[in-house]
Amino acid sequence: MKNILKYTFALLAIGFVSCEPEFDKPVTDEGFYSSGTANLSKYVAVGNSLTAGYADGALYITGQENSYPNIMAEQFAFAGGGAFTQPLMSDNIGGLLLNGTPITENRFVLAVGADGKPGPVRLVGTSTTDITNHLSGSFNNMGVPGAKSFHLGAPGYGNVAGVLSGASNPYFVRFASSESATVIGDAVAQNPTFFSLWIGNNDILSYATSGGAGVDQTGNFDPTTYGGNDITDPNVFASVYSQQVEALTSGGAKGVLINIPEVTSIPYFTTVPTNAIPLDAATAGALNAQFAGYNTQILPGLAGMGIITPEEAALRMINFSAGQNFPIMTDDDLTDLTAILQGPPFNLPAPLAMLLGQLRQVKSDDLIVLTASSILGTTPDPNNPQGVIGVSIPLTDQYVLAVSEQARVTAASTAYNTTIQALAGAKGLAYVDAKAALARVANGGIPYDGGVLTSQFVTGGAFSLDGVHPTPRGYAYTANLIIKAINDTYDATIPMVHIGNYATVTLSNN
Amino acid sequence: MKKVLVLAVFALASAVTYAGGYRVSLQGNKALAMGHTGVAVINSSELVFFNPAGLVYLEDKFNITAGVHGVFSSIAYQDTSSGANARTDSPVGTPLYLYASYKATDWLAFGLGVYTPYGSEVKYEDDWAGSHLVNNIDLKAIYIQPTVSFKINDKLSFGGGPIYVTGSVNFNRNLNRTLTDLDGNRSNVTIEAKGVSSWGWVASTMFNPTEKLHIGATYRSEIMLDADDGTATFENIPNSPLTPFKDTAIKASMPLPAEMTVGMSYDFYENWTFAFDYNRTFWDVYKSLDIDFADVNIPDSKNARNYKNASIYRFGMQYDATKMFTLRAGYYFDESPVQDGYFAPETPRNDSNNFTAGLTVNLGEHLQIDASFLYSHFKEIDASYDYYYENGVSVPFSGTYKTNAFTPGLGLTYKL
User: Fold this and answer.
1) What residues in B contact A16, CB-CB < 8 Å?
2) How far apart are CA A38 and CA A344, in angstroms?
3) Nearest residue, CB atoms, B1 vs list A459, A472, A498
């Protein structure tokens, strides 16, 4: 009897071991996936908000967990990739504090309003991420929201003393190795065997999202003189970018460079239609009557006097009709006629001259930014129901990225991308054409196992509620693009992810 | 847009699944050791299950046997396209049985059986790649079966009786592939139903053309477990009118399919017995699993299963080695009821080859110890479940599965 029990338990023990099912070729076995000629053991990601995993207008933990570098690192782990650390925020509210005072806003969530319609709202709650709580150690994810190309090498970009003045970056303050550290220096100090670099987006994006409120600094080679919404000179970009690639490859690391997408691929610029103003025939007629003198006498007169070109005169014509109409706007690229219109022969009163000074209607190829959706058609002065934004009050320039402004953005980003692609080729680095990939998302979309990924705001799945940054699914798509480029360049077989497993917008009612 | 979103979320949430291929053939250590043959083997009160008609041919007046099997099974999953992989950490299953028979007269015997022919316990790591189909499941069904058995003559007998079933299920899965609360915790639902009872019946016959040749047939009826007061408990649901998942009552029905067995046994030389059983399980009753949520805001869940009838071919040998030891061995081929495209991870059962062995130790006249061992070998299989939908689009869950199971068992028999 004792023996029987003994043998039974022995059998039990054998079975306990042998019943673990084993695949002929387990994916977890070393060598199932290959990193090819790349060494993924120490991956460092350098970049801006996109690299950090910023989404919904804020940085928060679950966004960081779904950053494209973190998704890539999880896949790298199948092919010799090592640990990947990120400077995680303290919560999923988003928003930063400086000594207890909020300095950035909370994240957006999709909430159903009182009218039953879902829309993005800022999440209510108090952020717990105080930038004065310095994180120790180094981080594989060196994505710094807001960073432009020339910021990465700027000493003091992580100095808390410069945050309020805008001289430094509150996100880098959290984990900079010292007050004088540079982003690129802290990245290189980790001796990466592999890196990704995606920088330059903000060098055009802040100009674009501000409706071209900044200055195109092309020709100005001193970035310390740039304002926050300016376009970075392409030569400055080329110079700092090549230095960064040089620094990151100095230890023999291989890596991947990612180019700059078109702003027209993101819902921040494509959601609000240019002809957003509905008018009935009577209202349109009344408005046209008011602008009749301007259209038929003042504009031809100015053109005849040589003050404006006939083309500008045509551009400035205001016409409404029954149905959807283009709103009126102020365009600071137009000749400012405010003073001239107050003088002879027009002698217009000052308020009217100021209204007409740089007035035109939005054109179909302009881009109205997402934030205009909350003001277009509203009456800011409740005592003046006639004062409707877009109809009788012009949209200010910050809400419209005009064709001329788009051209500056395109010119700069095209120049940046030429630099990025040339450097990738020269250094033998993997190159990702994010511009083309994002254009595919915006034009038709990317089919996946649960539908089609598009850049449609809220419902398309690719973009978070700020209209600029991707959702986790958008970041997963990005990670797959980069992995494919790495596989192609380095003869690697890193597996991609199923993007349908990654979430889109987050639902929450405050 | 709200409506579209609601639909999207709901569509994602409508694929609750139960176990498939959830037959557990472990109804006696003696029989299992012989490949779970027994419809025509006259050696113990395990006949209460295998063929009640045979009870009347048992030599002993009173025969009681009880035992337990320890099911050590594990499922490995991997998807080579993404690297996703998982391994179940299922608890050891311990199906029990108890059979008693009493020979009232030479031609009449009574029996009572308690056994667990259906069940499934599978536990994946929460939030694994297939967590939108199942995180874990525990399905139990206990059969209680009184029988009567009478013989026409030494060649022919009949038996049968009612079956009372009491069952329970506890099942958890994530609502879909992506829904989380604000902090990223996956939204999930637990379906629970306890004390669900129903009735069925068993009828059988045994025919002995010669003293050495026995032929048997047993039919066990389908039993539908109707859970009328189950519960659905939702967890980590976002605070949003678009996801109105509140805890609610549910109704669901789960078939325990009918099973027909025919077989024979043949005694040869002095001490040898050969047995063959053929099982046909009528799984085609399991077309779809539908869950009716009491809360009208939660759409009912319909889940295609579309099982097919499946056969099992069983072979067993018994050798009375000495007065003390009886040795047994067997083999059976178990055909999966799961059709292509319906391979769901809660019981990823493909065809299996099963090898069995065991022995009985006679401790004196009255007491026996029965031991058995089963090794189930499943081939590595590439399979998918194609009936999970998001936004009306089928999202197959595919990958490679490898299942292993080994099942030692121990029992006691007492006879007078």
Assistant:
1) 72
2) 73
3) A459
Q: Report which residue type is found at A4.
A: I
Quote the pLDDT of residue B9: 37
Greatest Cα-to-Cα distance within chain B, rounded to the nearest angstrom? 80
What band does B8 get if pLDDT is binned at 50, 70 and 90? very low
Q: Output the CA–CA distances (angstroms, integers) from residue B276 to A240, B33, B309, B380, in the order listed.
A: 81, 13, 20, 28
- Domains for chain A: give ranges and CATH numbers: 31-270+405-501 (3.40.50.1110), 277-361+367-401 (no CATH)
Task: Give pLDDT tens digits for B331-384.
Answer: 999 999 999 999 988 878 889 999 999 999 999 889 999 999 999 999 999 999
Q: Which two tokens stand for residue A38?
A: 């790349």
Q: Residue A152 and residue A184: Cα distance in Å, rounded?
A: 5
Cα separation, B280 vs B22, in Å, equals 14
| Residue-wise pLDDT tens digits, A411-429 | 999 999 999 999 999 999 9
Q: Which residues of B touch A450 (CB under 8 A)?
A: 177, 390-391, 393, 395
CA B208 distance to own-chain centroid: 30
What's the pLDDT band for B2 if we cut at 50, 70, 90? very low
pLDDT tens-digit readout, A464-487: 999 999 999 999 999 999 999 999
Nearest-Cα residue of chain A relative to residue B368: A1
Nearest C-alpha neighbor of A279 from the set A192, A371, A376:
A376
Helix (H, G, I), strand (E, B) or coil at A496: coil
Residue B385 has pLDDT above 90, yes or no: yes
- Picking from B81, B180, B373, the nearest residue to A11 by CB comes out as B373
Write out the two tokens for A381.
Answer: 């002065």
SS (H, E, C) chain B: CHHHHHHHHHHHCCCCCCCCCCECCCCCHHHHHCCCCCCCCCCCCCHHHHCHHHHHHCCCCEEEEEEEECEEEEEEEECCCCCCEEECCCCCECCEEEEEEEECCCCEEEEEEEEEEEEEEEECCCCCCCCCCCCEEEEEEEEEEEEEEEECCCCEEEEEEEEEEEEEEEEEEECCCCCECCCCCECEEEEEEEEEEEEEEEEEEEECCCCCEEEEEEEECCEEEEEEEEEEEEECCCCCCCCCCCCEEEEEEEEECCEEEEEEEEEECCCEEEEEEEEEECHHHCCEEEEEECCCCCCCEEEECCCCCEEEEEEEEEEECCCCEEEEEEEEEECCCCCCCECCCCCCCCCEEEEEEEEEEEECCCEEEEEEEEEEEECCEEEEECCCEECCEECCEEEEEEEEEEEEEEEEEEEC
Considering only CB atoms, B83 lies closest to which of A19, A118, A495, namely A495
pTM higher than 0.95, yes or no?
Answer: no
Residue A140's SS3 state is: coil
DSSP A136: P
Contacts of B117 (CB under 8 A, 6+ apart): B23, B24, B25, B27, B49, B141, B143, B220, B256, B259
Q: For the purposes of burial, counting CB atoms within 10 Å of the CB of B333, is it exposed (0-12), middle (13-18) or buried (19 or more)?
A: middle
State how far Cα A125 lies from the chain centre. 24
Which residue of B79, B178, B407 to mutate against A (max A Cβ within 10 Å)?
B178
In angstroms, the Cα distances linking B234 to A342, B173, B249 are 69, 10, 11
Kindly state the helix (H) or strand (E) to which residue A285 belongs, with its residue range: helix A281-293
With a cut of 50, say whether residue B13 has pLDDT above it.
no
Record the tokens describing residue A16, joined without a space: 């306990």
Give B60's Cβ-side CA count (13 Å radius): 18
CB A303 within 8 A of CB A309: yes
Whether the per-residue pLDDT at A253 is higher than 60: the answer is: yes
Taking 50 as the threshold, does the pLDDT of residue B20 lie above it?
no
In angstroms, rounded to a whole number, what is the distance separating the alpha carbons of residues A390 and A403? 18
